[in-house]
């Protein structure tokens, strides 16, 4: 439906919110089928992914690697379901393929795989081992700048992921080289695997840390479409230094019993929980890619 | 089959064995060590619930240190704790326990001979759906190449428990490899167990199969298949990759004139490589290696992946037949 369209596909926040809702439903359905995978992070990031792919990014699903594309690096590979659902809705792959999440011989690997092995168009490079995405993004920024190209680079990080030292090494490199074609998005949901972030490893004062590392910092409600879009535009206008958006989100957003609960980091809903989840996320005009309970 | 009754539990039901997580053996042993040895400390890398060190954390919170998702820092911190007399157990998933902090392990633990126990859960192909990034298939290679490092790949829950208890008594760096999923628990908990001394689990007359970790069970199933075709194997559980029991390997080579190795790891530089290194030096015989063949894994169910990547019982029994054909008459 959208494969040949350039952005913005939607400018109206109501349209974007509806697509985000559909992506949330897709995530639940994918996890119900795969019976394995992460619920919390993907649901929390649905609004940001929708904003990127249906409004902001210079991208063209029918030509996924066009030279002028904006680059997306998903440093937290475990939230792949939100990426796959978004890519499918945008036209990078058939919707039906969402049924193959984490299955053998498929492209929807548990963590994003490189295209050369068995990955999905739209994926630039492997991720899954945390902490590596920002370095890659900074490298891409430096190379693009050398070529005088105006492609923008987005890197999506988790907050737990910021425990990894490599993130801060990359942050220093970005600031040191005055990289300004980079927007880092931190999914600040206060949750990681073992517990809430401040219990596992204290991050606050997080905005100050990024400022001290030389970044322009934007703090937004990561579920407010208007704020998300505005922050993308503002980040783009920053010159001479890199930008980071601290997106305050809720893990499991949209499903009451998952919201803000770190225990939903890495597990899929069972059939009963899935039913409740789908009842809480309103249907959309796009329709689901599967009627899981009818086909079961 | 001619099971070694000293090592294998009585009345083993091959079709319906007791299943237990090896990682749980790690967790249970840590709690026991916490009770008996005040110097034992544990480091957590935001996967404590997954690797089962949360049991120690909840029982002995003062001796548990969360370092967040920071494996390089974890290994350095462990070295520091060891330096001042503690016995640190640093644990995370296999790939992030070895690949990520390799240089920290090399310099601060192996070269410096620090008494750190690196405990890796979620190893091999059986993490299944998580896919290639999480399937550690190079960890044995990385750890066994390091001078001073001891490398243990226990076979089941009981042996993982034993390994953790025993390695705490030795002042040396250790790497212990185990798994996420339930797996057959079939070794006697009180059997004689010695690092560097391989266990013969089945005695046979045609060919030796040297296996490690979860692949030992797969090899038992292969032995059962082969028996029906009139082929009998000696099955050796090589639970210690380093120091390697060269004597067991050379004896097998002399007894049978051919060897099959089996592991849930890359073919290069793992158990198969280690066995081959001994044989080419001392007593060359044909070796068939059942292992992942120089490729990364992918998402799928564990058993599906064992089939696709050629390390299931079917491939083990084929390798035995091939080895027998290659052996000099
Ligand atoms: C290097 C590395 N260490 C550990 C892990 C295991 N792991 C996967 S996700 C995760 C927690 C990530 O937390 P966060 O970035 O906050 O993501 P969220 O929980 O919000 O989805 C961990 C520890 C990993 N994938 N990579």
Explain this structure.
- The complex is a heterodimer of chains A (296) and B (329).
- Chain A is built from ten helices and five strands; from the N terminus they run H-H-E-H-H-E-H-E-H-H-E-H-E-H-H.
- Chain A is α/β, with parallel strands linked by helices.
- The longest helix of chain A is centred in the first third of the chain and has 22 residues, at 13-34.
- In chain A, 55% of the residues are buried.
- The mean pLDDT of chain A is 97.
- Chain B has 329 residues and is of the alpha/beta class.
- Chain B has two domains: 19-184, 3-Layer(aba) Sandwich (Rossmann fold); 199-326, Rossmann fold.
- In chain B, helix 11 links the parallel strand 13 (259-266) and strand 14 (287-292).
- The longest helix of chain B has 15 residues, at 22-36.
- The model of chain B has no long low-confidence stretch (mean pLDDT 98).
- The interface between A and B is medium-sized, with 33 and 33 residues.
- Bound molecules: thiamine diphosphate.
- Thiamine diphosphate sits between chains A (40-41, 76, 78-79, 128-131, 158-161, 187, 189, 191-193, 251, 265) and B (46-47, 69, 71, 96, 100).
């Amino acid at each position: 439906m959208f494969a040949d369209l350039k952005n913005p596909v939607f400018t109206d926040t109501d349209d974007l919110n509806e697509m985000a809702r559909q992506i949330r439903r897709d995530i639940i359905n994918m996890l119900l089928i795969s019976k394995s995978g992460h619920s919390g992070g993907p649901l929390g990031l649905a609004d940001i992914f929708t904003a990127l792919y249906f409004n902001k990014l210079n991208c063209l699903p029918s030509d996924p690697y066009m030279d002028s594309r904006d680059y997306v690096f998903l440093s937290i590979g475990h939230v792949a379901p939100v990426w796959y659902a978004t890519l499918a809705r945008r036209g990078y792959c058939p919707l039906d393929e969402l049924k193959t999440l984490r299955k053998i011989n498929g492209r929807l690997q548990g963590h994003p795989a490189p295209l050369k092995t068995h990955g999905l168009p739209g994926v630039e490079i492997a991720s899954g081992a945390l902490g590596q995405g920002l370095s890659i993004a900074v490298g891409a920024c430096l190379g693009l700048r050398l070529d005088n190209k105006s492609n923008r680079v987005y890197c999506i990080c988790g907050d737990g992921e910021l425990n990894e030292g490599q993130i801060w090494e990359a942050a220093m490199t970005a600031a040191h080289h005055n990289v300004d074609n980079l927007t880092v998005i931190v999914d600040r949901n206060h949750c990681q695997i073992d517990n809430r972030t401040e219990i596992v490893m204290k991050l606050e004062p997080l905005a100050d840390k990024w400022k001290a590392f030389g970044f322009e910092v934007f703090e937004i409600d990561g579920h407010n479409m208007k704020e998300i879009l505005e922050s993308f535009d503002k980040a783009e206008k920053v010159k001479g230094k890199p930008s980071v958006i601290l997106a305050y989100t809720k893990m499991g957003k949209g499903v009451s019993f998952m919201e803000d609960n770190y225990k939903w980091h890495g597990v899929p809903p069972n059939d009963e929980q899935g039913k409740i989840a789908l009842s809480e996320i309103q249907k959309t005009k796009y329709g689901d890619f599967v009627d899981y309970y009818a086909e079961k | 089959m001619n099971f070694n009754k000293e090592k294998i539990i009585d009345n083993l039901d091959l079709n319906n064995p007791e299943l237990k997580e090896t990682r749980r053996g790690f967790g249970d042993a840590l709690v026991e060590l916490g009770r008996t040895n005040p110097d034992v400390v544990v480091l957590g890398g935001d996967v404590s619930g997954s690797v089962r060190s949360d049991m120690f954390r909840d029982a002995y919170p003062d001796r548990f240190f969360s370092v967040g998702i920071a494996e390089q820092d974890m290994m350095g911190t462990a070295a520091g704790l060891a330096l001042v007399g503690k016995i640190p157990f640093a644990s995370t998933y296999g790939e992030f326990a070895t690949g990520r902090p390799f240089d920290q392990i090399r310099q601060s633990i192996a070269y410096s001979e620090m008494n750190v126990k690196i405990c890796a859960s979620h190893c091999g192909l059986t993490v299944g759906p998580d896919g290639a990034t999480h399937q550690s298939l190079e960890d044995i290679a990385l750890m066994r190449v390091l001078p001073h490092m001891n490398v243990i790949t226990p076979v089941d829950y009981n042996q993982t428990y034993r390994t953790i208890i025993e390695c705490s008594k030795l002042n040396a760096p250790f790497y212990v490899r185990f798994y996420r999923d339930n797996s057959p628990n079939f070794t006697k908990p009180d059997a004689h167990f010695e690092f560097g001394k391989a266990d013969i689990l089945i005695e046979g007359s045609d060919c030796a199969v040297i296996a490690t970790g979860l692949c030992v069970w797969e090899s038992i199933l292969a032995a059962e298949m082969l028996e029906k075709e009139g082929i009998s194997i000696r099955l050796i559980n090589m639970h210690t990759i380093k120091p390697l029991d060269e004597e067991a390997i050379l004896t097998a080579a002399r007894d049978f004139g051919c060897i099959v190795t089996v592991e849930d790891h890359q073919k290069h530089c793992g158990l198969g490589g280690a066995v081959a290194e001994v044989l080419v030096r001392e007593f060359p015989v044909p070796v068939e290696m059942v292992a992942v063949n120089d490729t990364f894994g992918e998402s799928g169910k564990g058993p599906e992946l064992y089939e696709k990547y050629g390390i299931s019982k079917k491939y083990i029994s084929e390798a035995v037949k091939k080895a027998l054909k290659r052996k000099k008459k």
